[in-house]
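Onboarding guide, step 5: your first structure request.
Type a short instruction followed by the sequence, for example:

Predict the 3D structure of this protein.
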Amino acid sequence: MGIEFKRSPQPTLGVEWEVALVDPETRDLAPRASEILDIVSKRHPDVHLEREFLQNTVELVTGICHTVPEAIADLDHSLSAVKEAADELGLNLWTSGSHPFSDFRENPVSEKGSYDEIIARTQYWGNQMLIWGIHVHVGISHEDRVWPIINALVTNYPHILAISASSPAWDGIDTGYASNRTMLYQQLPTAGLPYQFQSWGEWVSYMADQDKSGVINHTGSMHFDIRPASKWGTIEVRIADSTSNLRELSAVVALIHCLVVHYDRMIDRGETLPTLQPWHVSENKWRAARYGLDAEIIISRDTDEAMVQDELRRTIAQLHPLAAELGCSGELELVLEILERGGGYERQRREFERTGSWLAAVDLACSEMEQLRPLGGE
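The system replies with structure tokens like these:
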């Protein structure tokens, strides 16, 4: 089994943002994505939307972009078209890492062969996937660079998750986690942390095994938190919870874009890219999912530790010159705004504590989607 990696000469950018539909009265999820897709395709044929796993969700997909501002403008245009259709249908737009109280048993899966196969294979766990995320693609010039960069990126797993975490509640209860989505998604057999392959050849051999054993026949692909997207010549970073607004999303995308290019440049300079032991990476993932911006993370192979907020500030300062070159200085600086304001999971918890109801948390996320920015916590 050969895998051709469609090399990208430039570190181009593509973003996928999963957005759900909710009923304004019940605040529960509304399985009417097909109607949204039909309206938008007729009125705005330039807008790229994809049918998602659940019938309550549409995925906004950018074209091939060169800068973060270009990608965010693309998403803003698509969001306006989706909102126009949702308004006509009497629906609100909402997204976060997971819905705080909706019953997965009442949310139908979209009609698509691969989705049916996932459910048939994974049963209870597959049916529970009421979760939403952000996928960021960055172009890579050669397949030999893919796994060194992925192995370096997993050292930043808690940084990316902490600033995006927005799924504290599930089935009407506070889980105690900042990102319950992270804990849910890794239950699928092809999801979770990527193995730290040492070469492209190892990845090809692994995928041949998955094909031979029938795994790919069931799922269509491997759903690692970071994976090669060979068809596009990119690395796809799938760590982040879905943010409720474009402003925070732009911070997440800027951080990922800068990190990938930073590690790519390190290869150019002949420098050794950072890595952590797999058990350290796994522990960092759990700590960020559990504690979000308050996580203490492992930062070296010698098991040194630091607060993720301190590491984020250090990382932003380090990446600032590169961000200026890539045209995303303003968006990268928004990471610091998230640290000062608090994450989406914190805002949802505050609304629940204030009102005693998760309905208020859904309302808050809908308002943030409407106004394109986080609300509260100033």
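Each response can be followed by summary notes, for example: The first strand starts at residue 13 and ends at 22.
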